[in-house]
Amino acid sequence: MNTRANNSKERILTVAEALILKQGFAGTSIDDVLDHAAITKGGFFYHFKGKTDLAKSLVERYLATDEEIFSGMFKRADELSEDPLQRLLIFLKLMAEMMADLESTHPGCLVAGFSYESQQLNEEVHALMKRGVLNWREMIVGRLQLVLAEREPRVEVSVDSLGDMFTSSIEGGIILALVLGDNTVLVEQILNYRTHLRLLFEY
Question: pTM of this prediction?
């Protein structure tokens, strides 16, 4: 695919994501996307078979972006410490700082938004969303297992639930930030999760 085609596809995805986060998947038509992206109908269907195919591409793009961001922050955390717990705490601190640096309130999570309109999406998109959430769990659980190999928690914990707590802190924080119009509550939820890990594992 040539550069011009890549640029037009990326423009469609960027515009569609912004519109869907603002007005929902069902409330966003292909014509809305075409108008805001300044793309012809032929240009749209060159890249996507239809609205469901667009949703699939949006989820794939969203998850790939998250993976790149998380990998970059963990790489930095690994450079700063050799201790597994400190590496995880540094990662969470970097994430909180990234959210604090946003110029406006977090726009929302595409996967969470799609989960509210699950009846509008096919099984392939559902499977992608589930895989994304499980990947987030596995990412944190992998780090937690390294911590558990060296430290006993103060109380008995389920490592999978503790991994899911990362996702729920982020997603819940995004909802609070959107409702309250205050991005600091998202930052606080990330830092609260970080504090929870410190209370569990630091002596």
Answer: 0.91
**Cα distance between residue 96 and residue 170, in whole Å:** 10
- ∠ CA 185-129-108, nearest 5°, is 25
CATH number assigned to the domain covering 51-201 = 1.10.357.10
Whether 60 and 16 have beta carbons less than 8 Å apart is answered as no
- Domain-wise residue ranges, the chain: 1-48, 51-201
- Residues 164, 26: Cα–Cα separation, whole Å: 28
187: nearest Cα among 72, 106, 76: 106
Q: Please give the structure tokens belonging to residue 106.
A: 């977090």
Per-residue pLDDT, 2: 55
CATH of 1-48, one of 1.10.10.60, 3.90.1150.10, 2.60.40.10, 3.40.1130.10: 1.10.10.60
- pLDDT tens across 92-139, in order? 999 999 999 987 888 888 888 888 888 888 899 999 999 999 999 999
CA dist., res. 40 & res. 87, Å (int) = 48
